[in-house]
Amino acid sequence: MCGIIGILGEKDVTPLLVEGLKRLEYRGYDSAGVATLSNGHITRCRAPGKLANLEARLEKQPLAGTIGIGHTRWATHGAPTEDNAHPHATEKVAVVHNGIIENYGALKEELETLQCRFETETDTEVIAHLVTHYLKQGMSPVEATNASLDRLEGAFSLALIFAGEHNLMIGARQGTPLAIGYGDREMYVASDSYALAPLTKKICFLEDGDRVHVTREGARIFTNDNKEVQREIRITAQSGAAAGKGAYRHFMLKEIHEQPAVIGDTLNSFINPATGQIHMPEDILVALEQAPRLTLVACGTAFYACMVAKYWFEQIAKLPCEIDIASEFRYREAPMPENGMALFVSQSGETLDTLEALRYCKKQKQTILSIVNTIESTIERESDFVLHTLAGPEIGVASTKAFTTQLTTLACLTLALAVRTGAVDEAQEMEMAEALRHLPRQVAAVLNDSETRIQEIARALFDARDMLYFGRGSLYPVAMEGALKLKEISYIHAEGYAAGEMKHGPIALIDENVPVVVLAPGKDSLFEKAASNIQETVARGGKILLVSDAEGTKKLEKSSGWVITLGDVHPFVMPILYTIPMQLLAYYIAVAKGTDVDQPRNLAKSVTVE
Ligand code: G6P
């Protein structure tokens, strides 16, 4: 979750560290800090809150030094205060850390008996004291760091600099990612290659257990049993262009509006322009065809993409599916079938629970397919097969275009499989492929036609305390995603339910103060059932926001307080289209409430701790 960066260069590194931290801020924004070596001494500048606070401090008190480390924090141990902000340091060493040191309590007790004085509530501070303890015993920085790393339990990536050592930075990776960047007499380490993209495209990713000694001349990598190893240096395709908001007020709104283009790009990577047919790598389809069951695992929004995909794979491709949240699945000890296939969906490709679930499935001899947005991520590297969503960098913490491109990819995969197994005939294939091809245009139409209306509705709803979202079939996960979007950025309590479950509990919550969003297209085979749910809600004083097509609107307009009418759409792609008004509604309610839309409180975009 936290972002770390380190630079050894020939000019002052602080401005570059701050630029890198800007590209890592999506990982957390509780506090930020940098440490450099100035005349051989460790100097630090830290500030609670967003990176802008650190920048303001650095403007008043610039930090000199040609070697330095930086950190942007998502708090785990200890409140988001300046004291708890990284880098943590003694007079001999400074360290930045992403992850959790699970045995920090025992180490802290031990170090306290050795007269170490702790100043923070963090787990990370033990690393600074432990390394210092070994340095004081006469060990070199490399020996002291190795001795310390051998004692740490948990998941971490680290970067350390040492007083008096102008040409040494040590990095380590265990469980959370660390990339090494190669420049011209300048070397870098960072949590991801995106942070380094403006500085270099030459990147090497450490493997778990690796330790790296970085100097201006290069990097030497060792395993945790001290064997020197070579890791491949790749040229990454990351864009170094500054990620800007353009004319949009927030990244989230920009990313919502990018959807016609990025859904189109993702579709184009799977559609044969000559025939209009969907193409998927042959070996993925063979593995899926042989699998008695597909297990789909993910977290957050990506999990809702899996939920939609279950409807598709089962109804269209007739492939039995199991879905689960990664944090549950990884400890559930699920028995898995022979020749089974497991599919992991992740925007970042670094979500720790998803990665651990993948590793469990690998041990169970499942074939591993992943759908990721971030190229060269850990999840991609540990998979047998990968499909990329072409959403581009997603900066807003609330996921939008990553979700719809995940759905697009999953829809293409479903259709390609169904064609291969004969679960759909040629006419159905053409109809569904056409529905997919029309999607970018239809998404653009929703943005053009409904945005102003949704803004008005948002102004009527923004002071709600609770909201309910109902959907049926493949729109049930969209209701859950709509509720998630709302709670993430507006802090309004919201729940998504299968409409059929309404009578089993949520109906008790309904009164005139609880707006109810109902996704009920008239073209949907379950429309009549959704219509009954609406009448039951209205009968109890509930206020309905209906999201439907022209047919559904005509039938239910009178019973609804507000209506958003979308164009007619093929049922196959309904979940993708109906997601768009959910995103806009959450966005405009959050704007009306004045919350920090792109960096909502307590959240981080990439969750690399449990
Ligand atoms: C966090 C993010 C969500 C995201 C989820 C899974 O909760 O805030 O937007 O859906 O992690 O992340 P992933 O990168 O694996 O898709």
List keywords for this structure.
610 residues; alpha/beta; 8-stranded antiparallel sheet; 7-stranded antiparallel sheet; 19 helices; 38% helix; 22% strand; binds 6-O-phosphono-alpha-D-glucopyranose
Taking all Cα atoms into account, the compactness measure Rg is 26 Å
How many strands?
A: 25
How far is the N terminus from the C terminus? Answer: 10 Å
The distinct ligands, each listed once, are: 6-O-phosphono-alpha-D-glucopyranose
The outline comes out as globular
Strand order of the largest sheet: 3-2-4-1-10-9-11-15
What would you call the structural class?
alpha/beta
The pLDDT mean sits at 94
Number of helices: 19
Helix content: 25-40%
